[in-house]
Amino acid sequence: MLLCGALFVAAPAWAQSASPEFDSCLNGLRAPARAAGVQDASFSRFTQGLVPDMTVIDRLNFQPEFRTAIWDYMAGLVDDERVAQGKALLAQHGQTLARVSERFGVDPETVVAVWGVESNFGQSFGKSPLVQSLGTLSCFGRRQNYFRGEFFAALRILQAGHIAPERFNGSWAGAFGHTQFMPSTFERLAVDFDGDGRADLMDSTADALASTANFLQKAGWQSGQPWGFEVKLPAGFSVAGEGRRSKRAMGEWTARGVVRVDGSPLPVSGNAGLLTPAGAQGPAFLVLRNFDALYSYNAAESYGLAIAHLSDRLRGDGPFATPWPTDDPGLSRAERRELQTLLIQRGHDIGEVDGMLGEKSRTAIRAEQERLGQEASGRAGQKLLRALRGN
Ligand code: CA
């Protein structure tokens, strides 16, 4: 009794800040959750003591300061480090990947490339407790209906015992595990490939690789077909109106003078769209049906291209033949870490050297750009790295 009284009087700050609005919202979700297959006992167990995390609402409303250029995006996602690690994992998981490929018709290099881009081969899962972030997003901010669906799916996953509650962490928006599936995607497409009765995308590599291949198969992957390939456009070629969705017969592209980058002719059959992510002056690609399957993983063409290119690099191909149209190419993760180290040496507080250029790094980058008489954009490329190496 005494202890209870003491706790009541000296309630810690977090208990007082626990939101009555959130508690009442959560209570109101109990009935729709039940209708969606979450038993009352499960709801109570997994939401007991839950407090909202309002930082996820800040993330939801965050407007990026500038768009990342495609060459910066690609330089960070498809670098020598990721290619080397991907090759090592292809060998290490060769047997599993062969079985996955046999069952789902997706080649090992593509599966491993998705793995590398989604979670850095299982090294970046995100640290937000999913029940907390999805619960918060279900009660505050835009898109509450969408997030409620994901919240209920998350609770059903826990209820079914696929993933242990203490392991159920992910991105602030609810994507989790090796494959970074949303809970509803998990329910549609996760596979128990190692046969232990659970689809465990946190701790089973076999389940994760098979689930990725299953996703692509269901998205229409055509076995044995390429995603596409880099091409060379004839001088003066107009890319207006072309794109992933405007598929044309290969014969039509050939008639318009398009060839592969090594100068060889295009295949005689098939349909492809022309992708020019940096305009007619940058690398150009003819993309086939399988590129659409990669696209559907994250609904972004730059993302699809990163996976496609990484898969080619894992097959032993080199970088794109046509350079990006910039005089200041992007930085690999190793170069970003080197840049961060140089910024620390110059006295900037940029937090940890992690190869990710966040808010603190950008502030330091701007300060150095000003000092060097460069445009203070906060964007770091080869020019800034070279300048900082020099002094
Ligand atoms: Ca399993």
Task: Summarize this structure as a short list of keywords or feature phrases.
391 residues, mainly alpha, 3 domains, five-stranded antiparallel sheet, two-stranded antiparallel ribbon, 19 helices, 7 strands, globular, binds calcium ion
CATH first level of the largest domain: Mainly Alpha
- CATH fold description of the largest domain: Helicase, Ruva Protein, domain 3
Ligands, deduplicated: calcium ion
- Shape, per Cα inertia axes: globular
Measured distance between first and last alpha carbons: 67 Å
Radius of gyration: 24 Å
CATH architecture classification of the largest domain: Orthogonal Bundle
- Beta percentage is 5-15%
Characterization of this structure:
With 391 residues, this protein is mainly α. The chain has three domains: 2-60 and 124-202 and 211-218, Bacterial muramidase (Helicase, Ruva Protein, domain 3); 228-301, no CATH class; 333-390, no CATH class. The protein contains 19 helices and seven strands. Helix 6 (70-77) runs parallel beside helix 16, helix 9 packs across helix 13 (205-218) and helix 10 (130-139) packs antiparallel against helix 11 (144-159). It is globular and about 65 Å long. The termini are far apart. Residues 1-16 have low confidence and may be disordered. The site of calcium ion has 8 residues, from loops.
